[in-house]
């Protein structure tokens, strides 16, 4: 499986990197050793000592450098070996790869491709634990599923009335019809490095997040390379479309909520699923309640994805049949595959010149 490399992959929430720890993490079968320098900035090194291939993550942090605790070699944040006990001369070949890493939105992001192309402006604009708008609670889980089928699941909200029949309040015929109708009428726009779907779920009589309060919900989902899903839902008092000004709501929503979900491929059949969920700060008292509902829904997604992956592994040559409801998936895959093909062409050209 060839994943896109020239992009930022999330490798953890900022809170997962204490000042003294070396944190191992695997992206696309590449083992990384992540740690903080004394000034608090993050470093991402290839997680092996080139001498005997022992992981640096089981070594020791000494100032801004890592020491392998097998034979004592020490490596700087740029990957250079700065010490070999008993040796004065150090060959430039004794080094490890250093990866660009940035910390933004309360999360750590690593660039797995050409370091010269690592543009921090391409870090997806998620709402993190430091969000000024939403009271976000954050977590992560390993899913036994390829990153591409996890992405398909997140892009395809038409599964919600079925997979999430109980958790998202769709366990009655009225709510089920509202969600089905809203998904059937969604608009889909292609943006740079992703897609946006905007739709309305009109006439909800209740909501699992804030109770027996009727609302019209504006549901906007953004999906960005390499697999970042940002969903924001604004719930308005019923009949809001009759009160539009210039085609948009002119009033504040009665409730807002957001979830961001980030897929990082561990290997061809496993993914790290980072996620958060939260209401607006005006409803911080509902944050735990809302997150518990989201956790239950993500467990439902995990179960269906892992079952799907098990089937795919049994019949790897069987092709999926795409339907009209799959337009967001198809649009996004066009963008992703185009970027992946461009990368492959660049690598082929570089190899021919070498």
From TrEMBL:
Record keyword Metal-binding present: yes
GO molecular function, one term: metal ion binding
Gene3D superfamilies reported for this sequence: Naphthalene 1,2-dioxygenase Alpha Subunit, Chain A, domain 1, Rieske [2Fe-2S] iron-sulphur domain
Record EC number: 1.14.14.-
Record has Iron-sulfur as a keyword: yes
Entry protein name: Toluene-4-sulfonate monooxygenase system iron-sulfur subunit TsaM1
Ranges of residues in domain Rieske: 8-110
Entry keywords, A to Z: 2Fe-2S, Iron, Iron-sulfur, Metal-binding, Monooxygenase, Oxidoreductase
Organism: Paraburkholderia fynbosensis
Stored InterPro entries: Cholesterol_7-desaturase (IPR050584), Rieske_2Fe-2S (IPR017941), Rieske_2Fe-2S_sf (IPR036922), VanA_C_cat (IPR044043)
